[in-house]
Amino acid sequence: NGVLMWDRSIEHPVVSLDGVFVPLAYGDNEPDQGYGYGSFYDHTDQSVTTINTPTAITWNTTAASLNISIGTPTSRIVFAKAGKYFISFTAQINSQSASAKTFWFWPRLNGTDIAGSTMRITMHDNDETKTVGRSGIFTVSANDYLEAMFAADDLDTELQHYAAETFAPAVPSVSLNIHSV
Questions:
Q1: I need a surface site. Which of 78, 85, 136, 160 has the fewest CB within 10 A?
Q2: In what order do the strands lie in the sheet with 20-23?
Q3: How far is CA 75 from CA 9, 57, 83, 85, 94, in A?
Q4: Which stretches in the chain have pLDDT values below 70?
Q5: What's the pTM value of the predicted model, to 2 decimals?
Q6: What is the SS3 string spanning the chain?
């Protein structure tokens, strides 16, 4: 592990990892044989239909991607290549009444909740909006899928997007950025 070489067939530096030579990512010169990256958003409001029930977040926009894509259903982010990935998630949450309400967010890998990964936030004000986020490193196999899940203890909540203004671009309700490490 850790042997650095030049692969003439792809004209790119590679490093040995567990007996396999893997292309190194650098700048704009990342070959298709590398792990990959992805930037995904959703520009719709999303809400729970039942309180305290896991709900999968969906994605409707791919800003950029290599070997990572939105799957079927659109709540799945699919990895074409095995590896370790740094993943950053944000959600814009909104309260639609003055009562206290709590949101929970967590990742699922291949339909299984990832232990110890939940974020929890409580809001109190009517029409209050906050942005929450978390990042971490995930190890996946080829064709694994990741889902971002959420739940809320009140139906007067949503993951809220905002349309573009004359002075600013649109605000997605959720975003997910991924790159190999």
A1: 136
A2: 4-7, 12-17, 20-23
A3: 36, 5, 21, 18, 20
A4: 25-34
A5: 0.81
A6: CCCEEEECCCCEEEEEECCEEEECCCCCCCCCCCCCEEEEEECCCECCCCCCCCEECCCCEEEEEECEEECCCCCCEEECCCEEEEEEEEEEEEECCCCCEEEEEEEEECCEECCCCCEEEEECCCCCEEEEEEEEEEEECCCCEEEEEEEECCCCEEECCECCCCCCCCECCEEEEEEEC
